[in-house]
Specification:
Helix content is 36%, strand content 11%. Helix 6 links the parallel strand 5 and strand 6. The protein is globular and about 50 Å long. A seven-stranded parallel beta sheet has the order 3-2-1-4-5-6-7, sandwiched between helices. It has nine helices and seven strands. The protein has a domain of 234 residues: 3-Layer(aba) Sandwich (Rossmann fold), CATH 3.40.50. By secondary structure, it is an alpha/beta fold. The two termini are 53 Å apart. Helix 2 runs parallel beside helix 3, helix 4 runs parallel beside helix 5 and helix 5 runs parallel beside helix 6. InterPro entries: NAD(P)-bd_dom_sf (IPR036291), Sc_DH/Rdtase_CS (IPR020904), SDR_fam (IPR002347).
């Protein structure tokens, strides 16, 4: 059989012509010498050799690193001088995220329906740390986001007047109920949707009104759930899941309406979180402690502390071009 020889010879002139007509690109060399008679390669457009500038908004060009934090911390993650409201911040995920905001330099106001926790509570421990170690403040307001709409608006306006601005919100107030759909009552459904959807809307609305009134930009974070995207296997919570799907869609729509005012709106969708309430649930259903971790790709359950960074990110300038998005943090549960 005859040998197959590449027929390159006749195409060489064409290749040479193409090479002459194609712009060449080169990266600047540092500490590297060229041959004595070589000429620099020309490019189709000029290459700037100036130092890379930090992409920052005008208001944070002079921002200092966060107090009591490593000097290497990126300044766009700083919440220094920002005022942020956290609903549902007396305990659980809301309190853990509130502490993260304090550590990043923010002043935090908590809305919660229960009376202010006592001196031995985790909340008061965080409040003392805010004043003593972090040199900021954590302020408590007893408000029911479902029934206290007028108070939400009044207190939010007072906060804006006190500080001159409100910069952010974490809407973490929510309730859960495990009931089959055939047994759900209208009253239970109204209560669930009233807290998880209407309460979130009314809180976000009150904060956004003050931002618009004072012409200040800001960021709103609504706590949704992976259950707003999936139906949880073995966990019968039809109305809760529907409410969290509504929060995700609410976030998109508020983002589309309020973007013109410089107000960003995003949602966080956590996976299963081991809180004090969930620990009590495990006492009632011990099999869930071992079964639930197998539903995600990391084979473990999350803790409230796993969502600290997400809160700071979404409320800071680090996410300044992010809005209308859902940040799902579920260990890969919904990616199967």
């Amino acid at each position: 059989m005859a040998a197959i020889v590449p027929r390159i010879g006749r195409r060489a002139p064409l290749i040479a012509r193409l090479a002459r007509g194609t712009p060449s690109f080169t990266q600047p060399s540092i500490g590297r010498s060229r041959a004595p008679n070589s000429k620099p390669l020309r490019t189709a457009f000029p290459v700037s050799l100036s130092a890379r500038e930090f992409h920052a908004t005008s208001k944070d060009q002079e921002r200092e690193p966060i107090k009591n934090s490593p000097r290497a911390l990126l300044p766009e993650f700083s919440l220094k001088d920002k005022v942020i409201i956290v609903s549902g911040g007396a305990q659980g995920l809301g309190l853990v995220q509130a502490e993260a905001l304090l550590e990043a330099g923010a002043t935090v106001h908590v809305f919660d329906r229960q009376p202010e926790p006592g001196p031995d509570s985790k909340y008061q421990a965080v409040a003392r740390r805010a004043v003593g170690e972090l040199e900021t403040t954590l302020v408590y307001h007893q408000i029911d986001v479902r029934t206290g709409v007028d108070r939400i608006n009044d207190v939010t306006e007072e906060i804006a007047n006190q500080h001159g601005h409100i910069d952010g919100l974490i809407a973490a107030a929510g309730i859960q109920q495990e009931t089959p759909a055939l047994e759900y009552t209208a009253a239970d459904a109204d209560r669930m949707l009233g807290v998880n959807v209407t309460g979130v809307l009314m809180t976000a609305q009150a904060v956004a009104r003050q931002m618009v009134r004072r012409k200040t930009e800001g960021s709103l974070v609504l706590i949704a759930s992976m259950s707003g995207t999936i139906a949880n296997r073995g966990l019968i919570c039809p109305v809760y899941n529907a409410s969290k799907a509504a929060v995700i869609q609410l976030g998109r729509n508020l983002a589309s309406e309020w973007g013109q005012h410089g107000i960003r709106v995003n949602t966080i969708s956590p996976g299963y979180i081991v809180t004090e309430m969930v620990e009590k649930l495990f006492e009632q259903f011990p099999e869930r402690r071992t079964e639930w971790p197998t539903h995600n790709m990391l084979n473990k359950l999350s803790k409230p502390e796993d969502y600290r960074g997400a809160a700071v990110y979404l409320l800071s300038d680090a996410s300044r071009f992010m809005t209308g998005a859902d940040l799902r943090i579920d260990g890969g549960h919904a990616a199967w």
